[in-house]
Amino acid sequence: MHVLIAIPLISLLIVPAWASFGTSVNVIFFYMTWATLVLSHSALRVEIVGTATVRALCYALPSLLFYLFDILTPSAAVLLKAQGEYGLPAGNKKGKIRGKDLKVAAWALFNLALGIAVQGYVEDKLISRFRKLRLVKVTLKLPLPWNLVWQIFCGLVLREILSYVIHRWILHGRNRIARYHRTWYHNLRAPYPLTAHYDHPLAYLIGRWLPTILPVALWQLHMISYLAYLAFVSLEETFAYSGYSAMPTGFFIGGMARNMENHLHSIGTGNFGPWGVVDWLLGTHIEAEYTETGEKEEPPSSPIRLRRIRPNSAKEDLDDFLLDPPDNGDDDGDDDGGGNGGGGRHARRVSPRRVEGYWTGPPVRRRTRRNRHD
């Protein structure tokens, strides 16, 4: 417990109480706290306890409060939801909480703890084999304010690029991880609190944890810069996946929240990055469904292709049989042999389904058996 109290991030909350002593005394107090922490505990312990503290204060606790608010007072929460009743965990304000909704929250918290555990394991292996190679730099020397801002900015930019690349070409590719991501995360109706870290554990580590920790290792962020960077990312995930229409800094966080909703509803046809900057540059940005005047816009058609269903194919996996990833071939809806045509396949564009004013992706085709007549 004394390690938690000694973390400089916690001491920042105490510094305003010392305002009467001036800025110099506050800086000295902060440095003394940091020096005591570094000299009295191992670097690994400082890193892991600091990571767990920031994640708990900036993501887990506020997300849990939002989640309890949604499930305990749905009539009040629906007034703040951008998607109305459809954005509630139960799907409507009169619905009861199901075990599936609680399972989503449990898996999200498990993945959060798993990411911290994996980070500690990797850091321990790096320390034992390469003494000077670390994920986070823990030293007595503190970064200057402008260096602190620059390191945080570089980390966020690299995270945006890595998130886009991994999300688009790995989580939505033709592999087992993409199948896990599709059957776990894209099985949700809409984003709501705690869903930022809900996914299959393997897909979570590759798609969420890796883009967050890799910039820290590549830029060799100082521990103070890392804590500030992680706090920003945690707060971003808390509000961007809350589903609320009222957001702090609505232009920035609110736009990210709408991007996450459109990505989920379109079954991953766009909006792969957290900020949407790379999506805008590469043309994969999906516009919001509602304009500023409140008029509905038709969602873009999904480029996901469907194959014709063959009656005697029980041995094939249903997911691989029904869905093909988009390609750059002929996509005009005619079965002219281009793209994925041929072999009994039929390429066409699919109009997304609409559920209470929101689309949830292409209609699902189910395999049927022909009736046998004696």
Automatic annotation (TrEMBL):
Entry keyword Nuclease: no
Signal peptide: 1-19
Keywords: Membrane, Signal, Transmembrane, Transmembrane helix
UniProt superkingdom: Eukaryota
Residue spans of biased composition, Acidic residues class: 317-337
Stretches that traverse the bilayer: 104-122, 148-166
Region (Disordered): 291-374
One of the protein's GO biological processes: lipid biosynthetic process
Chain ranges of the Fatty acid hydroxylase domain: 153-284
Comp. bias intervals (Basic residues): 364-374
This protein's record includes keyword Cell cycle: no
A Pfam family of this chain: FA_hydroxylase
Gene Ontology cellular component annotations, sorted alphabetically: membrane
Subcellular location: Membrane
PANTHER family, alphabetized: STEROL DESATURASE
Protein name as catalogued: Fatty acid hydroxylase domain-containing protein
Protein's organism: Aspergillus homomorphus (strain CBS 101889)
